[in-house]
Amino acid sequence: METLQTLFNDIFSTGELVRMIFSGKRKKSLACTKVTIRPLKISGKSCFQAERTFEKKVTHENLSESEAAALAMRLVREEFKQVNIFTLSEDLQVLAAKPEKPRITTKPATKGMPTLEHNREKRRIIPEKTPCDFLVRLGVMDKDGNVIQKHYSKYRQINRYLEIVEDVFSSLPKDRTLRIIDFGCGKAYLTFALYYYLKILKERDVEIIGLDLKEDVIQFCSKIAEDLQYDGLQFLRGDIADYTADYADMVVTLHACDTATDYALINAVSWNTKVILSVPCCQHELFSQIKSEIHQPMLKHGILKDRLTEYLTDGLRGLKLEACGYDVAMIEFTSLAHTARNIMIKAVKNANAGSSRAERAQRQYEALRDFYHVNPTIDQL
What we know:
Helix content is about 35%, strand content about 25%. The protein is an alpha/beta fold. Helix 7 links the parallel strand 11 (about 250-255) and strand 12. The longest helix is centred in the last third of the chain and has 22 residues, at about 300-325.
């Protein structure tokens, strides 16, 4: 046992360990199938991370040098018969069916040292430390590009939104000025972000209209757009259901309440819009309609009924868009810690979708609608 103790002490103290893998269970009943130990840096401090692999989960534990050496000894003595050790100078294999008489073989090193930083800085489309005019004006950044701490969640949301826009950018027309309509823009953090991304970063000609019911919001946003010389950005007061246009290449609707989302989707489809990004909010319409004998024991609880009707509403919307020739994905828009309304419907027009797929989506829509005895506004599509 002294041989292994000395080996582990040396490996964890030299700073050359790349990875140590324990395998070959001593008992079939052992739930853990593998343990991997690797060096790690967290906030600039060195440690070792032990990763335990189970059938349906993985756990992690951060350890000091002495704790890692002690764990390695215990794993060999009690749980595993084989250890593969990769260091910068050599690879070692330990066969320890009898821990007191281990067989150790070595060969030249095969692996280099990976990055040890656990908290690597995430690449953001709008980076920190670089002043961004609309974020400074809206109070998210200071004039030096530092994100104001209380607005950090908004900063992350904006970048997450732009990551989604970047993902669909290739689906937008390339031969003309882009026309985009943002229904229910509110204070327009994301409307300004969209203009900044397309006009300034991607150098596309754009016409973006932000629509909202509140006159003070429209005046506030219009003044900022004028001051920043965002000439292709316009804010109008109006209702989503009544708005008319010839076409739109992208329609955005973020947290439009209840059936306002449906009217935005209906307009978008009628304009043959290429990209739709919609984050619904307050889906109340089906709450009073839904009926299901098999689900009644669950539906008698208001909070469960509310959540089920939210998912049903968005599921029906997604199927209806698929029936109209869109590729649809339901994605997480932002963290649940920021808002519970965090599901985005991302729909991209697919000219090659085929009629059979659209017909199948329509049948699925009708089956789901009829099963729950509902009549959603999106049925107008």
